[in-house]
Predict the structure of PKHH3 protein.
Amino acid sequence: APGPCSYTTLRDEAVKLFNSLQQLELERDPVPLMQGVLQTCLDLPPLVDEIYCQLVKQTTEPPAPGGQGDLHYWQLLTCMSCTFLPSPPILRFLHFHLDRRVLAEPPGANQSRFPTSEMAKYASFIREALGKTKGRECVPSLEEILVLMRRQEMICTVHCPGAPACSVAISSHTTAEEVAQELVSRLGLSQSPNLFALYEQSRRREQPVGNTTLLADVLTRFE
């Protein structure tokens, strides 16, 4: 059946996503294309497993191991792992795929065929992320995708009343409560009887951020 937001059928959208993945190999700036794939998966959840399977296929014995196309596929797989969890059967298969990249090849194997050092780092990062991902309200922002491509953390700036702005390193899984607790500790307010929370402020609204809200989702809304 046709999907929401002017999407066509799931089959047609799956084919479009496959074409996007093919285009990803040649993109000099893959970030907007990656965000578009992630947004489609958020709007059409049945396609999450489809994209995971396509990415596993594309990162299995690629024609140019370690090349730009191979790297872009691993980077998109990294972004997927921080945004969506696949269904249990696909998750088990994905873990098997990742373990093949993390484990060293047996002695005497052709090491030049699969230069696993960089890909193994992505595989380890993805495996760890899958253990923390619980679902997102928004797809990663352009900034978040850029730092995920480098397997790094984002820097979030929090403005505190009566104190200078504080910079906090966050991941795709960091909650508002975790950031608030860190700031309370930094500002020496651990013994204060007051309660502290983060607020999201824009031109249109100002509202408290729920304790379990992911800060990455808040930053995407700002974007």
